[in-house]
Amino acid sequence: MSRGRAGGFVERGTEGACRFVQSHPEGAVVSLVVQPGARKTALAGVHDGAVKITVCAPPVEGAANKECLRFLAALVGTAKNRVVLLRGHKSRTKLVLVKGTSAEKLVSIFQAFGLGEERPSPPSNGS
Question: What is the pTM of this model?
Answer without folding.
Answer: 0.77
